[in-house]
Amino acid sequence: MKAIILFGHGARDARWREPFDRLAQLWQEQHPSTPVQLAFLELMQPSLEEAVTTLAAKGATDLTIVPVFFGQGGHLRNDFPVLLEECRGKFPNMTLSATPAVGEDLAVLQAIVDFGARAL
Question: Whose CB among 5, 23, 53, 81 lies 3.0–4.6 Å from 65's, allowing a Cys bridge?
Fold first, then answer.
């Protein structure tokens, strides 16, 4: 079974995760047959490993991790690959792949331009 993990940075302020919760809810409403789980790099739960564990328990075997970051900063270039490899080692029977940061996608950038244009 395929599943998706929306991977964010995390923050001390619990309200910071509200858009991520809405994003996961939108995903589940629009793709009910594909489970979604949030995961965070730091300061919030669940961690990437905890999210993979949860989805594995639900029968997922093919996970796509979507970094909900604006760009490829140090966390995505340095920290995320280590976490991903650790999960691959702990879950050898699962396929774990990752997309580029969402902010690198032209459609996402265009959505931000459109948002700004509607604000004018």
Answer: 5
